Amino acid sequence: MKKLFVFLIMVAAILTYDVVQSEQGSIIVYSSMEQYRTEELQKQLNEQFPDKNILVMYVSTAKSAAKIKVEQENSDADIVVGLETSYLEKVKDSLQDLSGYQTHEYVDGLTLADNDNKYITWERQAGAFIINKEVLKKHHLPVPQTYEDLLDPQYRNLIAMPDPKTSGTGYFFYKSIMNTKGDQEGLAYFDALEKNIKTFTESGSGPVKLLIQGEVAIGLGLTFQAIDEINSGSPFEIVYPPQGSPYSLTGTAMIKGKDNKEVQEVFDYIANDFFLYDKENFSPEQVLKKQKNKIKGYPQNIPYADMHGISEIKEKERLLELWKY
């Protein structure tokens, strides 16, 4: 994990140097959201601040954290959006204190104070068993309801899961099992599950893509992606295991020393207006006590899993050292 982080620092520096050099004087926002959400943020900022030169750059969560870690207060970025909280914890010393920016009523445990006033909680990325009902029907198989059901040999080569080493989605499924079973039983569970896995995908969206293609019947994937496909006509079903929906968190922050008036105005818009737009239209998992959801058919009253430690970077590095697939 540490070697990977150092490598990402080097790659991130090379990839963004030329772009940033040409954008001196800009307000630069690193976004780790999906491309369509990043594009919508750029569009809204252009409309809201026509006199400001704002550049929203998609930078993956690991690369974003790697650059901030090495550049610290000299980072090219002024604002980061949608960065996984375990990485925000790793670069916390380089983030601006945001005391006074708490403008939304978050559910317990997700407030600004819970984040040491260094970043606002941006979203909850949550998952479930996503079922392609037609593929299961073709194989005359029942819909699995529990993690233990997934170990049944009848599902061999019909399951896809993201790789925890390359995907935050894969990691939160892994972490959920380890929280429930502990290290020894948890690793034994994945030893057994691996026999039924067709592939560990590189990205969190990988299982959904395989479900669309009919190559697997069961995907451990993101709920919002499954709902999007269901609304587009895919024969999918969502199943939450008894332990609840596993999830990770992302956050949004300002880089320390970048809190001038111009950057503050942009950050205020992102943290207030675009935040609500994003929750209503793109990423609706609950983070606020009162939260609107405009996405058709999105599950209500979702049972969430015990995800203690999901934001702890040392725990993540420890667990990834134990992952062997």
Keywords:
single chain, 325 residues, alpha/beta, D-Maltodextrin-Binding Protein, domain 2, Extracellular solute-binding protein
Considering the protein shown, what is the CATH homologous superfamily of the largest domain? Periplasmic binding protein-like II
CATH architecture of the largest domain: 3-Layer(aba) Sandwich
CATH level-1 class of the largest domain: Alpha Beta
- Compute the average pLDDT: 91
Structural class: alpha/beta
Coarse shape? globular
The fraction of residues assigned to DSSP E strands is 15-25%
Report on the biggest sheet: 9 strands, mixed
Number of helices: 10
Cα-based radius of gyration, to the nearest Å: 20 Å
Low-confidence stretches: 14-23
Protein name: Extracellular solute-binding protein
GO biological process, one term: thiamine transport
GO molecular function: thiamine binding; thiamine pyrophosphate binding
GO cellular component, one term: outer membrane-bounded periplasmic space
